[in-house]
Design goal:
By secondary structure, this protein is α/β, with parallel strands linked by helices. The chain has 13 helices and 14 strands. The longest helix is centred in the middle third of the chain and has 16 residues, at about 135-150.
């Protein structure tokens, strides 16, 4: 529970509550334990309402089998959704820290700022908004770091500064199981999609990542499957950090591919002694573009 954890100059303490959007993919138990208010992004897919499946990715597979070409539509929450979340937290906490998905990927950050402005001077004094410049598993690591800083009894301005310096320390990679979903959504040409398929057949896996808040192609990694390719990428990039014996912290999300996610988790824990905080479904905001079966992983020191 986050309570009375921010030390101020006169010796008193202020409690700090957290607000974030559901793109962070936090498990309910973490949100509940730390009293985090989650703002849901808007989602619409009329064609999917009658499809079978326990999650959006299973429904997407079913739609593909039936020849349905439309994809789910997602958009940022309205400012009112953030306003309601802020009001709830202000009833319980002295100050509110809002962590959003990258402003370069979504309008969530702008909606949060509009909501803060609606509260006038109270919002200016008590609500603090930070752009994670990340998403899904990377945004989750950002929230987990914020929880630690609050529990260390840091002042809100110090927490904001620490989180800003933490931004470049969070590394996120995403590997798609099939490029057809990016192709269907118009985010990848047919020619490039075919090249990706050819690479995958010879166990070369192109991957994307987030750099400076934007999704970009980050390279190609070899592996007998996607979990091994992801493991090799993390192993190589975290080597210098792990040399002094320090552990890396990892969050894994997946687009209805729990088996692959658990395999990656086991590789990271046994071979790198990494702290894998949780495995969860990838937010539809990201997942509907990369498609079912894809894996996302983020790590930080």
């Amino acid at each position: 529970m986050i309570q009375k954890t921010s030390q101020i100059s006169n010796g008193a303490k202020k409690s700090i509550g957290i607000v974030t959007d559901d793109v962070a993919d936090l498990p309910q138990e973490i949100s509940k334990e730390h009293q985090i208010e989650i703002v849901a992004c808007q989602f619409g897919w009329p064609e999917g309402e009658s499809l079978s499946g326990n999650d959006i990715y299973q429904k997407m597979r079913e739609a593909d089998k039936k020849g349905i070409k439309t994809l789910p539509k997602t958009s940022q929450p309205a400012p009112k959704a953030y306003l309601d979340a802020f009001k709830k937290q202000l009833e319980k906490f002295d100050e509110v820290l809002c962590i959003t998905i990258s402003s370069k990927l979504s309008g969530c950050h702008n909606s949060a700022r509009q909501a803060k402005n609606f509260l006038g001077s109270e919002g200016e004094k008590r609500i603090f908004i930070i752009d994670s410049l990340n998403a899904t598993a990377g945004q989750a690591l950002f929230v987990l770091r914020a929880i630690e800083l609050i529990q260390e009894q840091r002042e809100i301005n110090e927490i904001m500064n620490e989180l800003k310096t933490f931004i470049p320390d969070v590394h996120l990679y995403g590997f798609m199981a099939d490029p057809k979903w990016l192709e269907t959504g118009g985010r990848m040409s047919h020619q490039l999609a075919n090249w990706v398929r050819k690479f995958q057949k010879i166990h070369l896996y192109p991957f994307i990542g987030i750099k400076d808040g934007v999704v970009k192609a980050r390279g190609i990694t070899r592996g007998k499957d996607i979990p091994e390719a992801l493991f090799r990428q993390i192993e190589a990039k975290s080597r210098n950090i792990r040399l002094p014996g320090k552990k890396i912290r990892v969050v894994i999300t997946h687009c209805d591919n729990l088996e692959a996610a658990e395999k990656l988790k086991e590789l990271l824990k046994t071979k790198l002694k990494a702290e894998v905080v949780f495995v969860n479904l990838t937010t539809p905001v990201i997942g509907v573009h990369v498609g079912p079966g894809s894996l996302v992983v983020a790590w930080a020191r």
